[in-house]
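User: Let's play a game. I give you a shape written as tokens, and you guess the letters that built it. Ready? Here's round one.
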């Protein structure tokens, strides 16, 4: 993982109604940023102990990172703070980039499915596919044209590369995305990528259930799973040396914060990967949205914000 750096907000602009585009640059222009792959996100440190993850929209650029923030009506402080308090010239602590939603650049065709602000990682993928000269198709649904960010950019990318772009606005009479139809008409060897609200992603999982798992990729904003809160086990910290009992209703992350540690974390629900920790011994009870079935079975990593333990002792590389 790439460490924390301080970046300056060079520009902010409306990408759509309620969606602010943000451009971040290094404090010194001759310090290149790490190369970010399509699908990668960064964690922004937003004032008092609030950390939020946002997908980067400009893969490969080393002199700036761009992202977009939708003002979430149920904001716990992240998007509200950005919209109301962050301004050009301000600086932010930024962790990453990290990528749990990587593009398979070797596949013969990519199908990108976006709902609302879920367009951001898929825009990055579309840009990369155009740069590679690889075929792609995109289906993008938003509530209205006013709320549809990056529509012009996507039209330009599609026109330039000959890709098929399907834009729909639910509240303006367009029929909803027909995921079963999209899946039944997949070009041979396609990989599918989806990001958006839970309803769209649940339907996407159902529509792609019969496909080989390695062809299906999705990224959630919010977890679909219940955190493990049974407690009743002990976490031993291999490097720190302490053993920490986990009580009922407590996450490992909270228990560690309770003894004065500061493990990296952001979403607290298993969707961002900030708290990923190596497991040296024991059997995790995985509740995240990030690890694949094979990675879960391997049992060598876990998200300590939401996952628990199936064994009485877990030894973590902390
Ligand atoms: S804090 Fe986001 S996965 Fe744990």
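Assistant: Ready! My guess for every position:
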């Amino acid at each position: 993982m790439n460490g924390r750096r301080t970046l300056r907000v060079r520009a902010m602009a409306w990408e759509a109604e309620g969606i602010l585009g943000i451009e971040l640059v290094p404090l010194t222009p001759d310090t290149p940023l790490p190369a970010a792959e399509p699908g990668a996100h960064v964690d922004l440190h937003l004032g008092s102990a609030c950390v939020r993850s946002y997908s980067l929209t400009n893969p490969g650029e080393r002199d700036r990172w761009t992202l977009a923030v939708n003002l979430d009506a149920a904001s716990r402080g992240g998007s509200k703070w950005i919209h109301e308090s962050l301004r050009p010239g301000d600086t932010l602590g930024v962790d990453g980039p990290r990528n749990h939603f990587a593009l398979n650049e070797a596949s013969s065709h990519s199908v990108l499915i976006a709902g609302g602000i879920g367009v951001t990682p898929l825009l990055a993928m579309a840009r990369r596919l155009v740069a590679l000269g690889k075929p792609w198709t995109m289906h993008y649904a938003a509530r209205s044209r006013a709320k549809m960010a990056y529509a012009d950019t996507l039209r330009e990318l599609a026109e330039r590369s000959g890709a098929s772009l399907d834009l729909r606005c639910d509240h303006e009479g367009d029929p909803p995305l027909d995921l079963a139809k999209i899946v039944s008409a997949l070009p041979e060897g396609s990989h599918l990528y989806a990001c958006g609200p839970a309803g769209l992603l649940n339907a996407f999982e159902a529509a792609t259930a019969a496909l080989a798992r390695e062809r299906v990729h999705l990224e959630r904003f919010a977890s679909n799973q219940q955190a493990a809160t049974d407690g009743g086990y002990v976490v031993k910290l291999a490097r720190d040396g302490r053993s920490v009992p986990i009580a009922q209703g407590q996450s490992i992350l909270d228990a560690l914060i309770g003894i004065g540690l500061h493990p990296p974390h952001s979403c607290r629900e298993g969707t961002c990967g900030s708290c990923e920790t190596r497991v040296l011994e024991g059997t995790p009870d995985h509740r995240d949205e990030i690890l694949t079935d094979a990675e879960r079975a391997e049992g060598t990593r876990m998200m300590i914000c939401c996952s628990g333990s199936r064994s009485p002792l877990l030894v973590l590389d902390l």
